[in-house]
Amino acid sequence: MRSLIRRRKAADAPHDPAPSRLGYRYQRLLLTPGFRVFVRVGVPIILIAIIATSWFSHAENRAMLQARIDDARQSFQTRPQFMVKSMAITGADAALEAEVAAVLPMVFPVSSFDLDLEALRKQVEALQAVKSARVKVGEAGALQVAVSPRVPVALWRDGTTLRLIDAEGVQSGTVIARSDRLDLPLIAGDGAEQNIAEALALHAGAGPLRDRVRGLVRMGERRWDIVLDRDQRILLPGEDPVAAFDRIIALNEAQDMLERDVAVVDMRNANRPTLRMNEEASLALRRVNEIIPNNGANE
Questions:
Q1: CB-based contacts of 180, cutoff 8 Å, min separation 6
Q2: How much is the pTM?
């Protein structure tokens, strides 16, 4: 009976509105902006991280997720709008086009995501006959390869091989016989391909002698000899050979020097040009010199 009376007294007692000490501290923390952000954002993130870590800790779950990602990626990359169905090569002749196609062996159709365009470009530019190339996927689903071929400006006789070289001295192919490219000047000798600009300047300045020029020979990797028909040879100096050649052309136009029995014109010493007669003219001159003294002795 007494316990019941005590309970009634406790129930009838007025309620204390003040919060407990723990509740008071919690309410004070809620007034702190950083704590509110932690409760609203940090706690959910931590819970998600714990759940994700627990889920990824199982190998079968990771394998299943990876398989679904691969399937989704494959399904996206193999859509018709991303498929390359053919290859178009422009800017090359039939022979070079065949070389380009040979270094890009691909089975179509292929997804554009599986193509490394930069690597394909480098493969094409690795060909000797190609100066530069551009590779892109066109609008019609074709792999477009635009080739800029090297333009040969001379033939370089490298031993027994005739090589085509461009203005930069880079070889772009070979020919079997000189007659295959009579339109190009012929150069030979060690270091000839490294001085192609000077050789082209000499050939361009040949003027009236151009049809007689058979080739240019690099001598000792320091100077040029110009070989003409009739086994005539012009020896040019290492310094300013174009000016020396212009002087020879001027002398020939004034005196028909190269129309005579001259075998060699030596211009290595610009102050003292030297002429060397051919063998037949030398023998004839020797016979004349032998006859004249004998006649003088008889008189």
A1: 162
A2: 0.64
